[in-house]
């Protein structure tokens, strides 16, 4: 069964499958699939980029939602902590945040283990480090978008939930959250496109994304302009597909609005 599933996935591969774009356009050239070209490597880089962005999105949204809740809390310490968090990670360059997570966390874990007598070398997975770094940056920006959306929802919506006898959690889930998604969606669309581009930073810590794979191909083949242009086109295609999909979601989210 596993062999059958593997064959099915290979046949549906949009890059190097029987009807894949590199199969049709590559021929026996630089982006052909197989040993003669770089199609397989670049296709793998695209999959890594998409996987990293999709894995980062829910983590960043969850953290951003919690930060937004803390920012409008009645507890002064929670508001202060949320303000410090967003100030730090919105102020630091994304690349520097990535270095701090990748190298700093590695050193921290090494120090803790050394304290308990373990002297072995510890290495953090580059994908996990990229996910954490991008998630904290994404959450710092998404928290501001969500906080603005929270403030755009009238206070009477919460009072209506109380009048119906709903607990605050159910009021949030059934009344506030649907409106929050609709209001915050345009801002989140922009943040998703920024996140998609920011995944290119992980190439500096060795993760085989689009930029790293095309960079290796450019150095080996001496065709820098071709491969970096190909990288640009791949990011543009991903952005276009994202814009189309997010536009559909936005229209779906607004379906309940009263026509004016």
Automatic annotation (TrEMBL):
Keywords: Cell inner membrane, Cell membrane, Membrane, Transmembrane, Transmembrane helix, Transport
Residue intervals of the ABC transmembrane type-1 domain: 46-246
Membrane topology summary: Multi-pass membrane protein
Pfam families listed in its UniProt record: BPD_transp_1
Keyword Transport included in the entry's annotation: yes
Record-level GO cellular component terms: ATP-binding cassette (ABC) transporter complex
A single GO molecular function term of this UniProt record: transmembrane transporter activity
Main subcellular localisation: membrane
InterPro entries with a match to the protein in the record: AA_ABC_transptr_permease_3TM, ABC_transp_permease_HisMQ, MetI-like, MetI-like_sf
PROSITE patterns per record: ABC_TM1
TM region(s), chain numbering: 48-71, 92-118, 124-150, 171-195, 225-249
Intracellular or extracellular location(s): Cell inner membrane; Cell membrane
Entry-linked PANTHER family: ARGININE ABC TRANSPORTER PERMEASE PROTEIN ARTQ (PTHR30133:SF2), CATIONIC AMINO ACID TRANSPORTER, MEMBRANE COMPONENT (PTHR30133)
Family to which the UniProt record says this protein belongs: Belongs to the binding-protein-dependent transport system permease family. HisMQ subfamily.
Protein name: ABC transporter permease
Organism placement in taxonomy: Bacteria, Pseudomonadati, Pseudomonadota, Alphaproteobacteria, Hyphomicrobiales
């Amino acid at each position: 069964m596993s062999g059958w599933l593997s064959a099915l996935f290979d046949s549906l591969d949009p890059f190097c499958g029987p009807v894949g774009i590199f199969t049709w356009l590559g021929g026996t050239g630089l982006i052909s699939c197989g040993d003669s070209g770089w199609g397989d490597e670049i296709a793998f880089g695209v999959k890594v980029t998409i996987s990293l962005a999709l894995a980062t999105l829910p983590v960043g949204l969850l953290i951003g939602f919690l930060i937004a809740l803390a920012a409008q809390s009645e507890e002064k310490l929670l508001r202060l902590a949320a303000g410090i968090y967003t100030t730090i990670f919105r102020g630091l360059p994304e690349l520097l945040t990535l270095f701090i997570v990748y190298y700093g966390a590695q050193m921290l874990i090494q120090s803790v283990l050394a304290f308990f007598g373990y002297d072995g070398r510890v290495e953090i997975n580059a994908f996990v480090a990229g996910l954490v770094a991008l998630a904290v940056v994404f959450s710092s920006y998404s928290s501001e978008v969500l906080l603005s959306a929270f403030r755009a929802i009238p206070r009477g919506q919460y009072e209506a939930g109380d009048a119906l006898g709903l607990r605050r959690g159910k009021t949030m889930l059934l009344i506030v959250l649907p409106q929050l998604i609709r209001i915050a969606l345009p801002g989140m669309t922009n943040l998703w496109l920024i996140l998609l581009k920011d995944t290119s930073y992980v190439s500096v810590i060795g993760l085989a994304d689009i930029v790293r794979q095309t960079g290796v191909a450019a150095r080996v083949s001496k065709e820098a302009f071709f491969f970096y242009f190909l990288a640009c086109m791949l990011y543009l295609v991903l952005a276009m597909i994202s814009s189309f999909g997010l536009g559909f979601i936005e229209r779906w989210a607004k379906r309940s609005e009263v026509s004016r």
